[in-house]
Design a protein that fits this description.
elongated; six-stranded antiparallel β-sheet
Length: 219
């Protein structure tokens, strides 16, 4: 930012200097001694700015290099903006139910389908299956919460391609809640979901049992 600010000042100086010369030529007004003094002061100031910009931008050179350095910096800024715009944006958050409901217990392990989608940027979370599929290779952050409801017993886990990566266990306390989080490196197409282990139940009223994930950065 310092380099860009200094070089923008240089650009303004160059523009003002050019405008002054053009105005002087059109009016056919010359004053050699005054012009010499102004040029010396202007050049000294310009050189100081050039030295500052060279230190900030890692370049050195004469006044003729100012526009070259500016063009290079502008091109770099445009490339950074383009890269930022092209970076994939992935984030989702969903609760289990939109209103008060219990689910379970079941006699088999059951995938939890968080149907109440709050955010789904990138559409990587499938509210019909409860599965998040990584759209790009990268590092992702996931968190989930579970409420035991009236049964007081909930045991759930976050699975990556079927492998247990994080768990929430609450046993014996009615309406108790637990949460867990994990950062995972995923390849494109990897699946992440929450599973409720057999003989357990879960409760949600729109915000107590949730599943959230976001892409931190692609790789």
């Amino acid at each position: 930012m310092e380099a860009v600010s200094v070089l923008l000042l240089l650009l303004c100086c160059c523009s003002l200097s050019g405008a002054q010369v053009e105005s002087s030529n059109e009016g056919n007004v010359t004053n050699e001694s005054s012009q010499h003094f102004d040029d010396k002061v202007g050049n000294d100031w310009m050189n100081e700015l050039m030295e500052s910009s060279g230190e900030a931008a890692g370049t050195t050179g004469s006044q003729s290099d100012v526009y070259t350095v500016l063009r290079e910096l502008i091109a770099k800024v445009e490339n950074l903006e383009k890269a930022g715009n092209e970076r994939p944006k992935v984030a989702f958050s969903a609760s289990l139910f939109p209103s008060s409901q219990h689910r379970g217990p079941f006699n088999i392990d059951t995938t939890l389908i968080f149907t109440n989608v709050i955010t789904n940027i990138g559409q990587a979370y499938n509210s019909g299956t409860g599965v998040f599929a990584a759209p790009v290779r990268g590092v992702y952050y996931f968190t989930f919460t579970c409420n035991s409801g009236t049964t007081g017993k909930v045991n759930a886990a976050l699975l990556k391609n079927g492998q247990n990566m994080a768990a929430v266990i609450e046993n014996g306390n009615v309406d108790s809640m637990g949460s867990n989080s994990v950062i995972l490196q995923l390849n494109e197409g990897d699946h992440v979901k929450i599973i409720l282990w057999r003989d357990n139940s879960i409760y949600d009223n729109g915000y107590r049992s949730t599943f959230t994930g976001v892409l931190l950065f692609p790789m």
